[in-house]
Write a structure and sequence with these properties.
Elements (H helix, E strand, L loop, with lengths): L5 E5 L1 H8 L7 E5 L2 E5 L8 E4 L11 E5 L4 E2 L4 E2 L1
Amino acid sequence: MSGIIKRIHVNQHNVRANNKGADLPVLTVKCYNGNHKVNEVHFNKGVLKYSPDKPLACGARVWIETKDDVYLPELELTI
Protein backbone atom coordinates (compact mmCIF):
# COMPACT_ATOMS: atom_id res chain seq x y z
CA MET A 1 0.00 0.00 0.00
CA SER A 2 2.80 2.31 -0.83
CA GLY A 3 1.62 5.83 -1.58
CA ILE A 4 -1.10 5.88 1.06
CA ILE A 5 -0.39 8.07 4.09
CA LYS A 6 0.10 6.24 7.38
CA ARG A 7 0.51 8.05 10.71
CA ILE A 8 2.31 6.44 13.63
CA HIS A 9 2.03 7.87 17.13
CA VAL A 10 2.51 6.91 20.76
CA ASN A 11 -0.59 6.27 22.85
CA GLN A 12 0.25 8.11 26.08
CA HIS A 13 -2.73 6.60 27.93
CA ASN A 14 -1.39 3.09 27.31
CA VAL A 15 2.14 4.10 28.35
CA ARG A 16 0.76 5.38 31.66
CA ALA A 17 -1.36 2.26 32.14
CA ASN A 18 1.67 0.06 31.44
CA ASN A 19 3.62 1.95 34.10
CA LYS A 20 0.93 0.77 36.55
CA GLY A 21 1.17 -2.88 35.48
CA ALA A 22 -0.97 -3.16 32.35
CA ASP A 23 0.40 -4.76 29.16
CA LEU A 24 -1.09 -2.68 26.35
CA PRO A 25 0.35 -1.84 22.92
CA VAL A 26 1.70 1.73 22.93
CA LEU A 27 1.95 2.52 19.21
CA THR A 28 -0.99 3.30 16.94
CA VAL A 29 -0.69 3.14 13.16
CA LYS A 30 -3.51 5.04 11.48
CA CYS A 31 -4.39 4.57 7.83
CA TYR A 32 -7.45 4.52 5.59
CA ASN A 33 -8.58 1.07 6.79
CA GLY A 34 -8.48 1.83 10.51
CA ASN A 35 -6.14 1.87 13.48
CA HIS A 36 -3.65 -0.85 14.32
CA LYS A 37 -2.28 -0.98 17.88
CA VAL A 38 1.16 -2.55 18.24
CA ASN A 39 4.52 -2.27 20.00
CA GLU A 40 6.75 -2.48 16.91
CA VAL A 41 6.60 -0.83 13.48
CA HIS A 42 9.01 -1.23 10.54
CA PHE A 43 9.25 1.32 7.72
CA ASN A 44 12.03 2.77 5.55
CA LYS A 45 11.47 6.51 5.63
CA GLY A 46 9.06 9.01 7.05
CA VAL A 47 8.72 12.48 8.50
CA LEU A 48 8.47 13.23 12.21
CA LYS A 49 5.87 15.97 12.66
CA TYR A 50 5.00 18.25 15.57
CA SER A 51 1.76 20.19 15.21
CA PRO A 52 0.61 21.71 18.53
CA ASP A 53 -1.98 23.96 16.84
CA LYS A 54 -3.50 21.25 14.63
CA PRO A 55 -3.29 17.88 16.42
CA LEU A 56 -4.68 14.67 14.95
CA ALA A 57 -8.30 13.85 15.77
CA CYS A 58 -7.07 11.55 18.56
CA GLY A 59 -5.20 14.47 20.15
CA ALA A 60 -1.68 13.47 19.10
CA ARG A 61 0.58 16.46 18.56
CA VAL A 62 3.67 14.47 17.50
CA TRP A 63 3.62 11.65 14.97
CA ILE A 64 5.53 10.02 12.13
CA GLU A 65 3.99 10.24 8.68
CA THR A 66 5.01 7.92 5.84
CA LYS A 67 3.76 6.84 2.44
CA ASP A 68 6.03 3.78 2.46
CA ASP A 69 4.82 0.30 3.23
CA VAL A 70 4.65 -0.28 6.99
CA TYR A 71 5.22 -3.75 8.45
CA LEU A 72 3.63 -4.70 11.77
CA PRO A 73 5.44 -7.88 12.90
CA GLU A 74 3.07 -8.62 15.80
CA LEU A 75 0.15 -8.78 13.35
CA GLU A 76 2.21 -10.19 10.46
CA LEU A 77 0.67 -7.39 8.40
CA THR A 78 1.99 -4.99 5.78
CA ILE A 79 -0.04 -1.87 5.16
